[in-house]
Specification:
Layout (H helix, E strand, L loop, with lengths): L1 H7 L13 H10 L4 E4 L2 H6 L1 E6 L5 E5 H4 L2
Antiparallel strand pairs: 1-2, 2-3
Length: about 70
């Protein structure tokens, strides 16, 4: 939540709390015409990372959470 609040200052941000698989989140993001998706699942939470996917280019990366916050 802290990261989302920081991103809201510079980027349109939607927070989704419903537990779903990543594919379902991507479909929702595409329908809302989002350009990026950032997800924190169980593995990301354990590793202190965040999964980011560019919807347009399909590029995927994992970042350390503190790098995403910048």
């Amino acid at each position: 939540i802290k990261v989302a609040n920081q991103k809201r200052k510079t980027t349109k941000t939607l927070v989704e709390y419903t537990p779903r698989n990543f594919a379902k989140h991507f479909k929702i993001a595409e329908k809302s015409k989002a350009t990026m998706v950032a997800l924190i699942g169980e593995n990301e939470l354990k590793n202190g990372t965040i999964y980011i996917k560019n919807i347009n280019t399909k590029e995927e990366i994992n970042l350390k959470l503190e790098d995403f916050e910048k």
